[in-house]
Amino acid sequence: MQLIPQSTETDAYLVVDDVIDHDHPLVSETADALWGATGGAYSYAKVAFEFVRDAIPHSADSGDPRVSWRASDVLRTRNGICYAKSHALVALLRARGIQAGLCYQRLTDDDGSNPVVHGLIALRLPGSAHWARQDPRGNKPGVDARFSLADEQLAFPVRPELGEVDYPELYATPHPAALEALRDSADLPALRRNLPAEIGKFPVG
Length: 205
Fold this sequence. Notes:
The chain is an alpha+beta fold.
Protein backbone atom coordinates (compact mmCIF):
# COMPACT_ATOMS: atom_id res chain seq x y z
CA MET A 1 0.00 0.00 0.00
CA GLN A 2 1.23 3.50 -0.85
CA LEU A 3 1.27 5.51 2.37
CA ILE A 4 1.05 9.30 2.49
CA PRO A 5 3.30 10.79 5.20
CA GLN A 6 1.42 13.57 6.96
CA SER A 7 4.61 15.36 7.92
CA THR A 8 7.02 16.84 5.42
CA GLU A 9 9.84 16.55 7.97
CA THR A 10 11.41 13.08 7.97
CA ASP A 11 12.74 13.69 11.49
CA ALA A 12 9.13 13.90 12.66
CA TYR A 13 9.08 10.10 12.53
CA LEU A 14 11.89 9.96 15.10
CA VAL A 15 10.51 12.55 17.55
CA VAL A 16 10.02 11.97 21.27
CA ASP A 17 6.73 13.20 22.74
CA ASP A 18 4.40 12.53 25.64
CA VAL A 19 2.97 9.41 23.97
CA ILE A 20 5.92 8.06 22.02
CA ASP A 21 8.26 8.58 24.98
CA HIS A 22 11.35 6.69 23.88
CA ASP A 23 13.47 8.88 26.15
CA HIS A 24 11.87 7.07 29.11
CA PRO A 25 14.34 4.72 30.88
CA LEU A 26 12.08 1.68 30.51
CA VAL A 27 11.78 2.19 26.75
CA SER A 28 15.53 2.72 26.43
CA GLU A 29 16.33 -0.32 28.55
CA THR A 30 13.92 -2.50 26.60
CA ALA A 31 15.36 -1.27 23.30
CA ASP A 32 18.90 -1.96 24.51
CA ALA A 33 17.98 -5.49 25.59
CA LEU A 34 16.29 -6.25 22.27
CA TRP A 35 19.15 -4.71 20.27
CA GLY A 36 21.64 -6.94 22.08
CA ALA A 37 19.98 -10.00 20.58
CA THR A 38 20.11 -8.69 17.01
CA GLY A 39 22.61 -7.92 14.30
CA GLY A 40 21.34 -4.69 12.80
CA ALA A 41 18.32 -2.55 11.98
CA TYR A 42 16.31 -5.19 10.09
CA SER A 43 16.82 -7.84 12.77
CA TYR A 44 16.06 -5.35 15.51
CA ALA A 45 12.86 -4.17 13.84
CA LYS A 46 11.66 -7.77 13.50
CA VAL A 47 12.53 -8.64 17.10
CA ALA A 48 10.89 -5.45 18.42
CA PHE A 49 7.74 -6.19 16.40
CA GLU A 50 7.55 -9.76 17.69
CA PHE A 51 8.17 -8.60 21.26
CA VAL A 52 5.26 -6.15 21.18
CA ARG A 53 3.05 -8.57 19.27
CA ASP A 54 3.68 -11.56 21.54
CA ALA A 55 4.86 -10.33 24.97
CA ILE A 56 2.25 -7.61 25.45
CA PRO A 57 -1.26 -9.10 25.37
CA HIS A 58 -4.03 -7.17 23.65
CA SER A 59 -6.43 -6.20 26.42
CA ALA A 60 -9.46 -7.35 24.46
CA ASP A 61 -7.93 -10.84 24.42
CA SER A 62 -6.62 -10.89 27.99
CA GLY A 63 -9.55 -9.05 29.59
CA ASP A 64 -7.16 -6.72 31.44
CA PRO A 65 -9.35 -3.71 32.34
CA ARG A 66 -6.48 -1.21 32.53
CA VAL A 67 -6.14 1.37 29.75
CA SER A 68 -2.61 2.35 28.79
CA TRP A 69 -1.69 4.88 26.11
CA ARG A 70 1.87 6.09 26.75
CA ALA A 71 4.53 3.78 25.27
CA SER A 72 6.40 3.41 28.55
CA ASP A 73 3.17 2.49 30.37
CA VAL A 74 2.39 -0.15 27.78
CA LEU A 75 5.79 -1.72 28.42
CA ARG A 76 5.37 -1.40 32.20
CA THR A 77 1.89 -2.92 32.41
CA ARG A 78 2.38 -5.37 29.52
CA ASN A 79 -1.10 -4.44 28.39
CA GLY A 80 -2.85 -2.38 25.74
CA ILE A 81 -5.21 -2.29 22.79
CA CYS A 82 -3.97 -1.91 19.21
CA TYR A 83 -3.40 1.86 19.51
CA ALA A 84 -1.35 1.50 22.68
CA LYS A 85 0.69 -1.42 21.37
CA SER A 86 1.41 0.58 18.24
CA HIS A 87 2.68 3.46 20.39
CA ALA A 88 5.04 1.05 22.16
CA LEU A 89 6.40 -0.41 18.94
CA VAL A 90 6.95 3.02 17.37
CA ALA A 91 8.82 4.11 20.50
CA LEU A 92 11.07 1.04 20.43
CA LEU A 93 11.85 1.58 16.76
CA ARG A 94 12.57 5.29 17.14
CA ALA A 95 14.80 4.52 20.13
CA ARG A 96 17.17 2.85 17.66
CA GLY A 97 16.92 5.47 14.93
CA ILE A 98 14.34 3.66 12.80
CA GLN A 99 11.71 5.97 11.37
CA ALA A 100 8.23 4.85 12.39
CA GLY A 101 4.72 6.27 12.34
CA LEU A 102 1.11 5.40 13.02
CA CYS A 103 -1.58 4.39 10.56
CA TYR A 104 -5.14 3.18 10.80
CA GLN A 105 -7.84 0.99 9.30
CA ARG A 106 -11.64 1.08 9.52
CA LEU A 107 -12.89 -2.44 10.26
CA THR A 108 -16.34 -3.95 10.74
CA ASP A 109 -18.05 -7.14 11.79
CA ASP A 110 -18.61 -9.81 9.13
CA ASP A 111 -21.94 -8.24 8.15
CA GLY A 112 -20.52 -4.72 7.83
CA SER A 113 -21.91 -3.51 11.17
CA ASN A 114 -20.13 -2.03 14.19
CA PRO A 115 -17.35 -0.13 12.43
CA VAL A 116 -14.27 0.64 14.50
CA VAL A 117 -10.87 2.20 13.85
CA HIS A 118 -7.92 -0.15 14.22
CA GLY A 119 -4.36 1.07 14.77
CA LEU A 120 -1.09 -0.24 13.33
CA ILE A 121 2.31 1.16 12.36
CA ALA A 122 4.64 1.65 9.43
CA LEU A 123 8.42 1.75 9.51
CA ARG A 124 11.22 2.72 7.17
CA LEU A 125 14.65 1.22 7.70
CA PRO A 126 17.74 3.44 7.39
CA GLY A 127 18.69 3.88 3.75
CA SER A 128 15.31 2.72 2.47
CA ALA A 129 12.70 4.78 0.64
CA HIS A 130 9.95 2.25 1.41
CA TRP A 131 7.45 2.44 4.26
CA ALA A 132 6.19 -0.99 5.35
CA ARG A 133 3.10 -1.48 7.50
CA GLN A 134 3.26 -3.87 10.45
CA ASP A 135 0.48 -4.87 12.85
CA PRO A 136 1.59 -5.69 16.43
CA ARG A 137 -1.99 -6.25 17.63
CA GLY A 138 -1.28 -9.81 18.76
CA ASN A 139 -2.21 -13.09 17.14
CA LYS A 140 -5.07 -15.39 18.06
CA PRO A 141 -7.16 -17.95 16.17
CA GLY A 142 -7.95 -16.37 12.82
CA VAL A 143 -5.29 -13.63 13.19
CA ASP A 144 -1.73 -14.27 11.98
CA ALA A 145 0.17 -11.00 11.59
CA ARG A 146 3.87 -11.32 10.75
CA PHE A 147 6.81 -9.02 10.16
CA SER A 148 7.45 -8.35 6.49
CA LEU A 149 8.99 -5.55 4.47
CA ALA A 150 7.65 -6.88 1.16
CA ASP A 151 4.26 -8.60 1.15
CA GLU A 152 2.13 -7.30 4.01
CA GLN A 153 0.83 -9.86 6.47
CA LEU A 154 -1.45 -7.79 8.67
CA ALA A 155 -3.88 -8.89 11.33
CA PHE A 156 -6.87 -7.71 9.30
CA PRO A 157 -6.76 -7.33 5.51
CA VAL A 158 -9.61 -4.95 4.71
CA ARG A 159 -12.82 -5.99 2.97
CA PRO A 160 -13.96 -3.00 0.90
CA GLU A 161 -17.29 -4.65 0.13
CA LEU A 162 -18.13 -4.29 3.85
CA GLY A 163 -17.08 -0.65 3.98
CA GLU A 164 -13.68 -1.40 5.49
CA VAL A 165 -10.89 1.05 4.68
CA ASP A 166 -7.11 1.24 4.71
CA TYR A 167 -6.47 4.86 5.59
CA PRO A 168 -3.41 5.88 3.55
CA GLU A 169 -2.20 8.61 5.91
CA LEU A 170 0.94 7.97 7.96
CA TYR A 171 1.03 10.03 11.14
CA ALA A 172 4.04 11.03 13.21
CA THR A 173 1.80 11.42 16.27
CA PRO A 174 -1.36 9.56 17.26
CA HIS A 175 -4.55 10.64 15.58
CA PRO A 176 -6.55 12.74 18.09
CA ALA A 177 -9.60 10.47 17.83
CA ALA A 178 -7.57 7.43 18.86
CA LEU A 179 -5.66 9.21 21.60
CA GLU A 180 -8.76 10.82 23.08
CA ALA A 181 -10.50 7.44 23.25
CA LEU A 182 -7.61 6.11 25.31
CA ARG A 183 -7.22 9.12 27.57
CA ASP A 184 -10.95 9.51 28.20
CA SER A 185 -11.54 5.89 29.22
CA ALA A 186 -11.22 4.79 32.83
CA ASP A 187 -11.29 1.10 31.97
CA LEU A 188 -11.67 -1.36 29.11
CA PRO A 189 -15.50 -1.34 29.03
CA ALA A 190 -15.45 2.46 28.75
CA LEU A 191 -12.80 2.27 26.05
CA ARG A 192 -14.94 -0.10 24.02
CA ARG A 193 -17.71 2.50 24.10
CA ASN A 194 -15.34 5.33 23.17
CA LEU A 195 -13.56 3.75 20.21
CA PRO A 196 -14.00 5.86 17.07
CA ALA A 197 -15.94 4.41 14.13
CA GLU A 198 -13.94 6.44 11.62
CA ILE A 199 -11.28 9.12 11.49
CA GLY A 200 -10.81 12.23 9.44
CA LYS A 201 -7.62 13.90 8.36
CA PHE A 202 -5.92 16.33 10.69
CA PRO A 203 -3.09 18.71 9.88
CA VAL A 204 0.43 17.80 10.95
CA GLY A 205 3.48 19.96 10.32
